[in-house]
Specification:
By secondary structure, the chain is of the alpha+beta class. Helices cover 34% and strands 25% of the residues.
């Protein structure tokens, strides 16, 4: 079937899905479940007051204005998915219940008219969140309100079913399918919802979850969201008192250990590819529901991450290619970047993430990672549509270890196309995890302006002592020294918790390199920086 025929067929299905629905009268869903996500009561209190924050900006959101506020597209995506119902539920007040009910009712009365309101991924999230919070905010509503909500859910469920299959968009594909299952739970007589869910579940899981259990976005945040979506599937099947499909349990068995691997000693997420720390409580809540999947893999070959532990230290490295098209909405230019923690204390971290706007663009850059930049450029470029437009073609990773030390050799050619250079990074972790060393080598056709950054966690105090840098962490003191570069300490911002926090970064600027001949006799310039982070004995 050619593209034009497929487009016409989809338009026909959407037209049919929009026709009036004839079914027996129903005042409440036949089944409903409780969403497993945890909200933030403080954010819920702001919502009840008609305000919310998104990407460090404040907006108004009130029943008086309804769903016709002049919000940016990124804000509307968040609002239209109704995930913020979790925040109102966390507040656990009657005011929050009425606020949630009011906004759902306002949507049913006069939904927004823009295209985003009919986006399949957002529609699925909306349906699933309405049903997942039905007991909280809709079960005590008037009969007419409940009937109206169910009519909208069934209508949007039919539209969503007609839109399938959706193009790849990472974990949100599961959220869309959860909306379809929610529509079935409203009225199980509509068997088409369940049949479509069953038809598309397997291919969605296959394209999302790699062989080692890493999700295709290569992001701890996406891993978290995937596990939560899967656990919501479990909650929905349990509510219907039917057996859980093996595919769902198998997916949990693969993804939960990887989520555990992405956590530092403080129990929060590492910061790679659009992730935030999240709270220890909400991550542990997921693990409590899947306690038998607590194993932690040390290497993720398909995901392209290395997790190295020694003593009390943890070294997490992004050692793989950026995610493929369709799964790259969260991608950052952090290839070969790493994070390092000691016990519960993070020392070196990437800078964080934002949902949109100028912050998102800045935090996606290589300069916002513990990585090298050449001539001020990133190793990955993003187009105007937000997708990756240039990325390394070759990324290598070799790990050797003994009981006492680890050696990791890495390289990528992300600077070869624009600048004719290859960056190689060699890391060593030894001395019970209290000695981390690195060698950074840039080989190219000429000397480049190369900058190496080490972003320091906000709670770590930084002090320069002659040519060294002292890092005063909670319960430990570390010394950083280097050769081959000019060292400065600069102010920094950390957004790993969602809001900008002042921090510091160590910046090394490579000096003039040596000129050598390679194996083929070609002249090359080599610039090298060697650095050491070593714990000072108590």
């Amino acid at each position: 079937m050619d593209t034009r025929t497929l487009s016409l067929w989809r338009r026909f299905r959407l037209a049919v899905a929009s026709l009036p629905i004839h079914h027996r009268a129903s005042l409440r869903p036949v089944f409903f479940y409780r969403d497993v996500g945890q909200g933030d009561g403080e954010r819920g209190a702001r919502l009840t007051a008609g305000r919310f924050s998104f990407d460090h900006r404040d907006y108004s959101f009130s029943l008086k204005d309804g769903w016709h506020g002049a919000w940016p597209a990124d804000v509307r995506k968040w609002l239209y998915g109704f995930s913020w119902l979790r925040d109102l539920k966390a507040l656990e007040t009657n005011e929050a219940r009425l606020c949630a009910r009011g906004f759902i009712h306002a949507w049913c009365e006069q939904p927004p008219s823009d295209e985003l309101a009919q986006d399949g991924y957002l529609m699925g999230q909306r349906l699933a969140n309405w049903l997942g919070h039905y007991e909280f905010c809709l079960e005590t509503a008037t009969e007419s309100t409940q009937k109206q909500v169910l009519e909208v859910m069934l209508r949007e469920g039919r539209i969503l079913a007609a839109l399938l299959p959706l193009p790849p968009q990472g974990w949100q594909g599961l959220a869309a399918l959860r909306g379809l299952l929610a529509a079935f739970m409203v009225l199980p007589e509509q068997q088409g919802f369940l049949l479509r869910f069953q038809r598309y579940l397997k291919p969605e899981l296959e394209r999302l979850i790699l062989a080692d259990g890493t999700v295709a976005e290569r992001s701890p945040e996406a891993q978290f969201q995937t596990v939560r979506e899967l656990q919501n599937f479990v909650a929905m099947y349990n509510a219907m008192e039917v057996s859980i499909p093996f595919l769902i349990m198998q997916a949990l068995e693969k993804t939960c250990p990887v989520l555990n691997a992405f956590c530092h000693g403080d129990g929060k997420l590492a910061i790679f590819n659009g992730s935030l720390e999240r709270t220890r409580e909400e991550i542990q809540a997921l693990f409590e529901n899947t306690g038998r999947y607590k194993a932690v893999p040390t290497i993720l070959p398909q995901g392209g991450f290395a997790r190295i532990t020694l003593g009390r230290s943890l070294l997490l490295i992004d050692a793989g290619k950026p995610p493929a098209f369709g799964f790259d909405n969260m991608a950052h230019a952090g290839t070969l970047s790493f994070e390092f923690s000691y016990g519960m204390q993070r020392l070196f971290v990437n800078c964080g993430a934002a949902k949109g706007g100028a912050w998102k663009e800045a935090l996606r850059a290589s300069a916002a990672h513990n990585a090298l930049t050449a001539e001020g450029e990133s190793c990955v470029e993003f187009g105007a549509d937000g997708h990756i437009s240039r990325h390394p073609s070759h990324v290598s990773h070799n790990h050797k270890s003994t009981a006492k030390a680890h050696w990791i050799d890495l390289s990528h050619d992300g600077y070869h196309a624009p600048l004719g250079a290859i960056w190689s990074r060699s890391l060593y972790l030894g001395k019970e995890g209290e000695d981390l060393r690195g060698q950074e080598l840039v080989e190219g056709e000429r000397d480049l302006s190369c900058t190496l950054r080490f972003h320091i966690y906000p709670t770590v105090k930084v002090e320069q002592e002659d040519d060294d840098v002292m890092l005063h962490a909670e319960g430990s003191l570390w010394r950083f020294r280097q050769s081959g570069g000019d060292l400065t300490i600069e102010k920094d911002l950390y957004l790993g918790k969602g809001l900008p926090e002042p921090a510091f970064q160590i910046v090394l600027t490579a000096k003039e390199g040596e000129v050598v001949k390679n194996d083929s006799g070609k002249i090359q310039h080599r610039q090298k920086i060697i650095w050491v982070l070593e714990r000072v004995p108590d």
